[in-house]
């Protein structure tokens, strides 16, 4: 079955999540709909020397998540997240892989910073706490090469499920999650695969990443009240709060999903990414390139701007980002932007860099499935430049047939993706 | 045979950019392939004495100040300098005038397997060497894998659908497939390829754990893929960036067309790399056949193959089996023994070599040191520079942990 554009259609048939505040899909959704924040003072290391000392950490137990002893030994934390998410998503999809279907099943994951956590830990040992430029290789652990190359994330998932379709890791900074799912979407559209295990993960809560964002004052300096530190779109916002986690969606060619009677969360109806060509970290306030990405992704599915029922915002909580994307929503949706509920789940689960785009797409799938819009927590004061409906603090029951999600990343990347309730399936005419 | 699909849009290559051990532009690279001298040498970027691997293929005669403004130089890794320089070359070579184009019609999709290593190690040292240490304001934009693509997009105002692919060494070819997909969706020009900067002490330490590096100390014999003396590869830096362009756009501006991206196939072994396991011949065969099928070609149409040529005996054997199974006694040409393995950059560089072979109707020889093929690896190696009409070439790239990609490029014909 092909869509209006003549390309094959792509369904979401499984969702798996590891997130702060609860490490399964159901716990994640419970966190979001309760408006509960998972941000806290960093516990992974002593953060006292850093400007920003808060983060959203996941209470992740790899054994409970079903990882084998060897996977736990070999895989850095972000890869462990990816394996756990893939397991949950595959189980959710009900998909049974066999010899034949493995050939048309791919793995496309995103990650912004890959094995940074393992690389930093190992660096400290081989350099004797930074004392040696010519580091002592004999102190390097056995899986150090897997830490260096972020392709390990896709490689380990393909290894576990013996998939033989295309495998890839897309690493476009903080839009990696959307871009990985977008890459997978296009592979299925073009017939290069029928099923793709696709999402993203990152575990960036380590000193080097905290220090990196300190240096440019991107993260919040407010350490006294961690639960309320992430305040997207609020007038008093002071920067983002780092998070970690992952999400995996099972993307499946629509006919393939219908034939096997799969439960379908929604359809991927549009994806686009544009670059601002402006600055690695700076954003012009007009949001033009993000607006372009939104418009292109809506047009792909012949979705009218006025059909958008929910916007899952990038909403990092930096001064410039929230203003930038508010402008982009207005540019792309016109007056309808004011009538559309917008929210930033980063207010609750933090900003997990490349992972968050996939976590937000998981949230969009669940939003459509449940007809509940998650809120923006910690919102209390209106910013004159952020004057849309940010769904403050309380989840909202409302019909959501079309959800738009956006991401904005270092490097100037601006990505948009549209999920829509499935319609026009032969013999059904509506929800499968 | 053409790559036109239902959209009718074909992806051709109109610009070449090379920063590599073989030379810092496509012509120097091409000439170096015939000069019989190895470009591998003792590592000069740091003192390698304390490491079991002391050889590398380094980019030489590269003055970053000629390519990168001082303000940008301090904010970027060596890998990004090479990416910026190669991108500039590809654009200059193509003659495309970006200023007359809609910036959304231009994009960049590069591969990287490990990011800004030298820069990142320096920043880790700044952070950890003293109790109050911290990283610089540039760490957040220089170390991560998207740094080169971001900087290239900013320098040239490439605002279309960009991408960063990190499937270890296979992504250098995947970037050309992605460029083609992007062009079929309406983008006019896409920079594709990749560069690598794997030569810092810490990055080398990480690479040692792959178990694939050669500890040889004779630059002429350290990296001998398919040879009975094969004992791993020599790492190298640099790579290639090419301008991929939509055919009508190229024709309308009278561009010289080096060749066309006709087909690709990507598979995964479905298992991780481990010592003694040369990967899946079956999945490499499938990648090669998918690339053939997509290009509408048959095995006998392929005039030359540029293999992955890892130099690890069990991998060489698997690749040799796959090559024979799919392409029989196709002429095989590889210069990796002479240049080192540039990871993602190496696959992109092989695409340049393939296009130059078409341009000059000449097959470059394999390194003369490859004299004694290992049992099972007796392929039809190109032994001397061979004048030959080259219409179609296949390039293979395999990545650590089971990634396989094959690409077919062809001489352009209407």
How would you describe this structure to a colleague?
The complex is a heterodimer of chains A (432) and B (414). Chain A has helices at residues 25-34, 69-74, 77-93, 99-103, 116-126, 144-148, 152-161, 176-189, 207-215, 254-259, 288-300, 319-333, 346-349, 354-370; strands at residues 10-18, 39-41, 54-56, 105-110, 167-170, 195-202, 242-243, 245-253, 266-275, 310-312, 342-343, 372-373, 396-397, 402-409, 413-420. Chain A has 432 residues and is α/β, with parallel strands linked by helices. In chain A, strands 5-4-6-8-1-9-15-14-10-11 form a ten-stranded mixed sheet, with helices on both faces. In chain A, strand 10, helix 12 (319-333) and strand 11 (342-343) form a beta-alpha-beta unit. The longest helix of chain A has 17 residues, at 77-93. The two termini of chain A are 15 Å apart. Chain B is globular. Chain B has 414 residues and is an alpha/beta fold. Chain B has a nine-stranded mixed sheet, with helices on both faces. A two-stranded antiparallel ribbon of chain B has the order 2-3. Chain B has a two-stranded parallel ribbon with strand order 10-12. Chain B is built from 13 helices and 15 strands. Chain B has one domain (11-410): 3-Layer(aba) Sandwich (Peroxisomal Thiolase, Chain A, domain 1).
